[in-house]
Amino acid sequence: MSNEGQKRSLGGISHRAWEHAADTAALATLQGVPGLPELTKMLIGATTEKSLRLLSLASSVRVSSTQFPRTQTLYQEACERLDIESPPELFVSQNPFLNAGATGADHPFIVINSAAVESFDDAELTSVLGHELGHCLSGHVLFKTLLQFLLRIPFSLIRIPAAGVALMAVIAALNEWDRKSELSADRAGILATQEPESSFTLLMKMAGGTDHSQMSLESFLEQAREYEKNGNLLDSVHKILNVQRRSHPFPVARLSELKTWVDAGHYQRILDGEYPRKGDSDDIKKAWSRAQKQYRDDIRTSKDPLSNAAESVLSKVDDMVDQVKDIFGPIFGKK
Q1: CA-CA to 312 of 20 to 30 Å: which in 10, 22, 125, 161?
Q2: Catalytic: 80?
Q3: Residue 242 in domain
Q4: Annotated catalytic residue within 19, 49, 124, 132
């Protein structure tokens, strides 16, 4: 299915247009820690980025008009739609897994596996490329690389127990942000391809392989709905435990999130030109306020038993806050 004649270049679009609220808030917090972005860039830029780029230069194929020209054409189209003037370097690596990734600090680059180039159709491949470009534009790549750096630190070498606990907490928080960043990048992918169904079938193929003739998108969507609502409270706990060691949410969860975003009208409004522009001001308080509202909305609309329990707790907290205000308001004044 194609709508080539309707595809648009989203001039001046800001990365905030596609970002999940929790992603924006967490990233704004990380960027606001004094010295952290600069320190991370110094460490990664001088070591990891240069090392991995040299590795890609030595063992992969850099995409150009003469090397993987189909991929180059689709990449240029994705960059045009997301208003990217200086695209990151793109490499194709010989690898049988359907995957891609972006790495770096000052000059991030993208590596896509050969299996993805060979197995995805044009729209699906554009969605993958847009996904990785979304990571680059949102500034995810710096802190994703930091997370991978931290994950490689042997805990056995940390002599101070409290430091190990603190590091585990930081890694857990970064992992939670990392999964939310994937939801943001999925939205960038759909804006790059501008064929929603292709972004959906991409996730289906990520889950079940590339033989589309053996799968049904409608059945996969039903599977996603079942995952979201089925089971009891123990099943919900298992869902949480299952995802803790994953860098990405499960494909059915990503599909559900992406389709909800499209069905809510956000995708169409962006195509109609209603989106934040580069240079528009934003602050961390507003970002956290949107994240809080997003989490509350997610809980209240979810059919998961654990979310229903959480909604009940939140409603009681709101009641208690009102009672506290009623009690102490007259004592300390309206403020």
Answers
A1: 22
A2: no
A3: yes
A4: 132
